[in-house]
């Protein structure tokens, strides 16, 4: 008892009390700057270094994950936007694949309304389309036709248009599972617009992220108390920097745990513990659904993917084949006579050209941003409903996917700042004892 009293009497209280204050402030700075590292900048900012790309390939795998190194640059890109494509891939595997098939998403976009919109947009352009094709393929035949003959041909084509377009949207719907790959679409969109992934976190989780920063001070302060005791007992100059590394690492690890773990409520005596993000899964689902419906799985993006994506050639060929009979019907009773007059090869060339032009024109309304926004409501409702039904563990994995493998950078950043805080305290107050 006397030894303990002597130990307490010997305390340099200014030195002792300032240690947890220092670790608290450093813990706050660690979590605040950690959030900056997570989300900013959205694009890589740095300098290109000749030869660095080759050197980086022989570095340990963890170091290769530092944004910019594999591209031969020194700088930084936020961890979340840097891993946007990976998050997109895991989001599809964990959630979007369970939200619905490509056919489910396509049906939510109401193909009948798409067909009506295509007809409304395309019909006024039909005379120009027919004239362009005829002038390109058989200008003498087109010039020799009297005005009433030209009008009759255009009117027959226009009369066939609703049936043709309905056939197009039906054919897309029938083969959509082979033509549309949501995983590639989501990954490509997240890669092009990494800010979308940042929005997912920011739009619904800013309150929790701010709380994580505040808890950085609490964790740092509490961890600083045993550090102060050890420093007083052993009074070694190296203790504060070394223990600062531990405090910095643990503070960041606790901050990440606070956000994501546990995914489901757990009781520890009178206390219930639940991750900050998973406890608001319902609100997160609404934000996630809004971003997916407004910026990822949109009619506009589906149209681009169908025609310009990796399966675009297949889409075009399928639609051309489905349009040929409709073009034959548009020629009407005169089809056989026209085929004889212009020749079978030229007739087939005209039919093929009209079909090719029609494919491009009929899918142009898919890229109408305003129409796409109107059709997004049902996609939003579907994604929100299914996201809310996800098991909490899958929801957490979907949200954490962009961070998990790179969390070591945050912890290393915390350890470095903790070391710096220990060195700073040592420089200002000296060795405890």
Automatic annotation (TrEMBL):
<feature type="transmembrane region" description="Helical">
    <location>
        <begin position="408"/>
        <end position="431"/>
    </location>
</feature>
<keyword id="KW-0812">Transmembrane</keyword>
<keyword id="KW-0472">Membrane</keyword>
<keyword id="KW-1133">Transmembrane helix</keyword>
<feature type="transmembrane region" description="Helical">
    <location>
        <begin position="209"/>
        <end position="230"/>
    </location>
</feature>
<protein>
    <recommendedName>
        <fullName>DUF445 family protein</fullName>
    </recommendedName>
</protein>
<feature type="transmembrane region" description="Helical">
    <location>
        <begin position="236"/>
        <end position="260"/>
    </location>
</feature>
<feature type="transmembrane region" description="Helical">
    <location>
        <begin position="13"/>
        <end position="39"/>
    </location>
</feature>
